[in-house]
Write a structure and sequence with these properties.
By secondary structure, the chain is mainly α. The protein has one domain: TorD-like (Orthogonal Bundle), CATH 1.10.3480. It is built from seven helices and no strands. It is globular, with a radius of gyration of 19 Å. The two termini are about 20 Å apart.
Length: about 220
């Protein structure tokens, strides 16, 4: 009887783990698109995200304030494209360093995370950009789903979860916290500020999820 209870409990845990990671994929895809340049494809995904099908309540209510595409593109370029005169809310982690790590060390560390999973950047991609860091978490979460239930997958899943833990703790959580503080200074980026608050809350929850599953 006890053995049967344990088996049922394990089956329930595994099912929940798979479903939770499928949901995490949708979250990371949404945020990855949300903080990339708003071309038509990105804009359409923000107008009608897959998350709307699974999230109840008003968590996505800020999407009702999505500016028209032309306006959003101007906002994005004006406030984020600091190379061409943007106002300074950088979408690069390195711009928020507080003497804990040099820029060169940060870039090498990010590249090291990506390289460990066979990922290499294109010449125009920045290792510490928010879009790339979110895409990395999206990729790893997809790997969890793809490896789920395969023979000898336990070690792979643990390796992926450990990488996500380290990446969240060392990079994304602090990065997004700093970005959130910058965005609140400007009324014109209210939409991005609200999305950043949503992202920050999600990342803290996601780190708890990863830590919990590493203890299983």
């Amino acid at each position: 009887m006890n053995g049967k209870v344990v088996t049922l409990r394990n089956e329930r845990y595994l099912k929940n783990f798979l479903e939770e990671n499928k949901l995490r994929v949708l979250f990371y895809e949404f945020f990855k698109d949300g903080f990339s340049y708003p071309n038509k494809e990105v804009y359409n995904s923000l107008k009608n995200p897959q998350l709307k099908k699974v999230i109840k309540g008003d968590a996505l209510s800020f999407l009702e304030g999505l500016p028209p595409l032309d306006n959003l593109q101007v906002i994005y370029t004006t406030y984020f494209d600091v190379v061409f005169g943007g106002k300074g809310c950088h979408l690069r982690e390195g711009e928020y360093l507080k003497n804990k790590m040099s820029m060169s060390k940060l870039l090498l560390e990010c590249k090291g995370f990506y390289k460990n999973f066979g990922l290499y950047l294109q010449p125009n991609e920045l290792p510490d950009s928010l879009e790339i860091e979110l895409e990395f978490m999206y990729y790893l979460t997809n790997l969890l789903v793809e490896n789920f239930g395969k023979d000898d997958s336990e070690n792979k899943i643990k390796k992926i979860l450990m990488a996500q833990k380290d990446f969240l703790e060392r990079h994304l959580v602090h990065f997004v916290s700093s970005l959130k503080e910058c965005l609140k200074k400007y009324e014109e980026v209210e939409f991005y500020h609200k999305m950043c608050i949503f992202l920050y809350d999600f990342l803290r929850y996601d780190l708890d999820f990863v830590l919990l599953n590493l203890d299983k």
